[in-house]
Amino acid sequence: MDNEQNDKEKIIEYIEKLSDEVCILKKENIDLRNQVITIINSLKEVIGVQSGLTARLDDAICNNAILEVLYNRINNMPYELKDPFRADQFFYPHFESHEETIRKICEERKSLARFGDGEFSIMGNKERWKFQRLDSRLAERLLEVLQSKVPELIIGIPYNYGSLEKYNDQGADGIRSYMTEAIRKQHNSLLDRNRVYADAYLTRFYVMYKDNMTDRPRKRIERLRKMWEGRHVITVEGALTRLGVGNDLFDNVASFRRILAPATSSFDRYEDCLHAALKYAESDTLFLLAIGPSSGVLAYDLTMKGYQALDIGHVDLEYEWYRAGKGERVSVPNRYNNEVFGGNQVEALAVDDPYYRQVLISFAD
Prior knowledge:
alpha/beta, four-stranded parallel beta sheet
């Protein structure tokens, strides 16, 4: 254990030296220095988690995890600090505020297509999530939507760039783990440096934020609910997504009906879902979409047909986690949940549940 402790002390010493050098280069920037100090303190906390009382196997696993977190935090530090000496090497997309996105949706009836790690993985032909198999046609359509210039459609990407100070450690470290050099190169090749994007985390209002145990998530969800307030809603959702079942998330709509896609790989029945949506739509229909990576494509196609459509993936799960009040992801037995272990095991609803009366048509396998 002495050698292990020495190694940890060397790591801390190295990181502190690194931070000192950065701060000397930019000593006039107090905000930067505070960011560096925060990162260093977080690193020390992670190192301090490891106890000498664990078994050797657990000890090795824990040490590997610590080193991975350390590596990701150090590797991502220049991006979080927005170092102006290397600005030409970094790409920071332009983002509008959540409030501005919601205003456009409510007042200007804009649609929303969101792109996250799943969508970028499909466009890069890399398997990532089990809820949608790789599909070259879907990859082509996603790229078409991402680079489209339709005034009525807002494009959202995750706010994974620059400072991550608004996120908690779990949220920030998840971003650091994902944002590898390869991912940054992909984003740099696909995104428009002159475009202003919405934040795809708009609908992820709870778990990943530092303030998730304050009153702020309640205020965020109140703003989100204005997007469908008083509207005649048709959802296109996975067969086990069950938006709003057992909660009051959509109690403020004028009407609520559902089109059900397969629980996984919904793009297999994409054309059926699109045709059904157009069949049942009325002039003032608002579509709420939650069918994984296919949602952005459907938002685009419905917008091109003159309808408003919002990709709201995960907002219902976030609301359930918010209601649980634990500040973390928890199991929701009657929902398909790709973000917790065993989340694909979903309890059946009662045969007389109002959910079934809302279903217009189902394409579930």
